[in-house]
Amino acid sequence: MALAPRFAGQAFSADISPKAVHTIELFLDYVCPFSAKMFHTLYTSILPTLSQTYPQKLQFIFRQQIQPWHPSSTLCHEAAAAVLRLAPEKFWEYSKVLFEHQKEFFDVNVVKETRNETYRRLAKLAGDVGVDEGKVYGLLEVGDRPGEDGGLNVGNGVTDDVKVMVKVNRLMGVHVTPTVLFNGVVENSISSSFTGQQWQEWLDRNIKKNVNLCGENGERVIEQKPVSHSCRKCWDTICCR
Q1: Measured between alpha carbons, how far is residue 12 from residues 77, 135, 169 in Å?
Q2: pTM of the full structure
Q3: Is pLDDT of 233 > 90?
């Protein structure tokens, strides 16, 4: 599924111009320990060298997957949406910090504070990565007065953005976190327990070996190669550009 321009910060591309050959979508929740484990491995072992390892072949998209049985999940994703609005280039760095501090937003650590108090702590973390803390909180704060139309569910400055994210994820039918899609298909062979080496091996099998090279004389070469999905029966036509 395409990525709306206002959420462009969720993409981490290997110098893609104009489009990626392969797309990996990561459905992650900021208060899910397994999401944190997967993100940490990718952020430290794969993403730093993505442009050198898979130039113009691959992009990752961070799909923010709210898990509503954890009430603070919504608040954390709202904070990330605020960072996307203000400084999209800081989104992945802020996500790293949120995952590092995720236990501070588990149920027992937020139950005794108000919603806006939780927002203040989330805004402070944004300040730690160089995003204006005051502006982040300004987008997150929920007022205590009715809206102009008398409505009481007034939301905040990122409510509409979060609605779009939730709608996209519902349309894609994702429930569990983490979930990984490879070129639009759920890839069940990828686990949150993957080490950096396992990720590298998987990417080598599915990215490097499925992108064909030009012929010796520079002609355009078309070749069919098997794509490594769980069924192992899919075929995909890869064309050199």
Answers
A1: 18, 24, 19
A2: 0.80
A3: no
